Amino acid sequence: MTPAAFSASSSGPASFSLYPELDATTLGAFVTALETGDVTGLAPARAADVADVRSVAVFGRAKVPGADGDLLDAALWRHTGSGPRPVIVMPSPWTSLGWLVYAVQASIFAARGYNVLAYTARGFAASEGMVDVAGPLDIADGSRALEYVVGRTAGPVTKVGFLGDSYGSGISQLVAAHDTRVDAVAALSTWGDLGEAFYENSTRHLAAVEALLAAAAKARLSPQTQAVFENVLANRDVEGTLRWAEPRSPFTHIKELNRRQVPVFFAQAWHETLFPGNQTLRMFNELTGPKRIDLSIGDHSGPEMSGMLGLPNRIWTDAHRWFDHHLKDVDNAIAEEGQVLSEVMWNQTLEARPAWSAVTRDVRRLFLTGDGELAPDPEAGWSAGVLCGVDTPATVADAVVTGGLAELAGRPKAYPTGDIDRTVAAVWASAPGEEVTRLRGIPRLRVTYRAANPGSTFVAYLFDVGPDGTAHIITHAPYTDLDSAPDSLISADLDLQATGYDVPRGHRVALVVDGRDPFYGDANLPRATLAFTSPEATPSYVDLPLG
Predict the structure, then answer these.
(1) Cα separation of 402 and 18, whole Å?
(2) In-domain check, residue 33
(3) What secondary structure does DSSP assign to 377-406, as a single string?
(4) Reduced to 3 states, what is the DSSP secondary structure of residue 206?
(5) Mean pLDDT of residues grouped by 10 in the chain (547 residues)?
(6) CA distance 47 to 34
(7) CATH code for the domain of 490
(8) Which residues pair with 116 in a beta bridge?
(9) What is the helix, strand, coil percentage profile of the chain, to 5?
C-alpha cells in the first residue's frame, strides 16, 4: 500500500491496519480459551500462557464507566488472593481490534503477579463515545479505568503502571501527568509532541494523517477530530491544529512528570513514519526521572508486534523488567544498564549507552560542493537547481508502517541512485569510506537556497551507497519555508531524524535533496525551481554524528 492509497481526494479512506500481522480470529481464540479453559487449536506456547494465568487469576470481560457516561469495552485479569499487588492499565492502540491486541501480554503480566485492565479507547470498536485523540475525555477515561480495577482488587494496590502502544502510549503518558496515582509508564511507538508529528519543520505529514484516518475507518471520530485531520490534509488552519495538539502532547505536561519523577520507558523505531523519532527523543531528554529508551530497526509498532503474538521480543521483555523494577521493587539491574539501548542498522548489534548525550562521540562536517561531492573543505560560488513537483526514486519508504516490516526481516528497500534525475534532485556524495562509518545520533544539515516563489519545501535524505550504486536510506527530514520573499536566499538549518547506522567500508554517504515526496505536503508551486548554493560566509554542510 502506497501513500497514494490514502489520498484525500478519494471517496473514503482505504482499509488499512497499523497492525497488519495481528489477526482478530487468532487473538479471539486466545481470549475464548482464557474464558473457558479449552485450549484446543492454540499453539503450545499460547496454551501454556492460558494455563499459567488461569492457575492464578480470573479473566473476565468488562464495561468500564468512562467520561461523560460512555462505557468502555475492557478486559480484567484479577487475582483473588487478598495480598497486596501492583496494577497495570493498558489503553488500546489506534485500531479496531481494541484491547484485544494486548490479550497475550496482559495475560503474561497477570501470570507474573499483576492485576491488569486492558480497555479500548473511546470511539473504537465496542467502546462508546467518539475519538478524542488523547484529549481531556481520554485522560479522564484512563483515570476512570484505574478506579474500576482498583475497586475490584481483592487486596491492597501497591503501585500503578500504565502501558500503551501507539495511541495508547500517548494516553498513558498523559494520564500519568494528570493522575498522581500512576507510578510508572511504558510507552511503545509513542509521541512527545503531536504538533511536531503533524508538522515537522512546518511540513505537513500527509501520509501519516491519511494512514491514521484509514486505520480509523470503522471508528467514530468526533467532529473536532475529523475537522483537524481534514484541515491538515487541505492545508488549512495550521495554528488551530497546533493549538489542538498542544494539550494532547505529553511534552506540554512534562513538568508534572518531572515533579513526581515518574519512571518512563520508551520504545521507538528508527524509521518511524507516523511519529518521527526526534520529537520523542526531545521528550525523553527533558525527563528528569528514571527513564529508558529502546531504539530499533523498523517502523511504527513493528519492533514490538511479535511480542503481541506472544513470541520472544526484547521490547516487551524490557517493558516487563521496567515494571518489575519500578512497581515490584525487583532488583533486575535494568536501572544500571544505561538509559539508551539501540539496535544498529543493519547488523542488529545492540548498543547500551548511559544517556543520549553519550550516543554521539564526535561530529564529522562535510561541505556541499559544486561538483557533487561531500568534502572536508567548503566551496562557494556554485548552484544546483531542483525542479519541483516531480517525484524521484528518493522517497521516505514505499509505504507507511508496512515498509518497516521488510526492514525487520533484513530486507531494507534498495534505492537505485543512478535513476535519480539530477534535474529534479540535487545529489552530493562522500568519498568511499576507508573503514566502517558508525553514524550514531542526529545528523544536521545547513543549506542555503533560492526559491523563485513564495513558499518552498524540500526533503533531504542521507543514503548509504554501495560500490554498485545501490543505496539504503539512513535517515531524512523535510523542510518548509513559508515566510521568505520570492527570489530571496533562504538559510535552512534542520535536524535529520536520529539514526544508528553502520556504513560499510568502501561505501559512500550521499545527501539527496528534492522538492517532492508523497509522504509530505509541499508548498512549492508546480514547475517551480529551488537553487541550492553555498555562500562563503555561511557554507552549506552536513554534520555526521559518529559513535
Answers:
(1) 8
(2) no
(3) S---S-EEEEESS---S--S-SSTTTHHHH
(4) helix
(5) 34 69 94 98 96 98 97 97 97 98 98 98 98 98 98 97 98 98 98 96 96 96 97 97 98 98 98 96 98 97 96 97 98 95 94 98 98 97 94 92 88 92 96 98 98 94 97 98 94 98 98 96 93 97 98
(6) 9
(7) 2.60.120.260
(8) 77, 88
(9) 30, 30, 40
Residue 476 and residue 341 share a domain = no
Residue 115 β-bridge partners? 87
Which of 357, 377, 403 is the C-terminal boundary of a domain?
357
Question: Is-cis flag, bond preceding 346, omega within 30?
Answer: yes
Name the amino acid, one letter, at 307.
G
Task: Centre a 10 Å sphere on the Cβ of residue 220 and count the other Cβ atoms it contains.
Answer: 15
Domain end, chosen from 309, 327, 357, is at 357
500 - beta bridge partners? 440
Same-domain pairing of 244 and 332: yes
Dist CA 252 CA 242 (whole Å) = 12
**Confidence (pLDDT) at 4:** 36
| Dist. CA 220–CA 70, nearest whole Å | 13
Could you identify the residue written with the cell 544508528? 500
Q: Can you name the residues that pair with 532 across neighbouring β-strands? A: 384, 449
- With cell 479496531, the residue in question is 96
Residue 112: domain span: 56-357
**In this structure, what is the dihedral angle of CA atoms 463, 469, 472, 475, given to the nearest 10 degrees?**
10
Same domain, 345 and 365: no
321 and 414 fall within a common domain: no
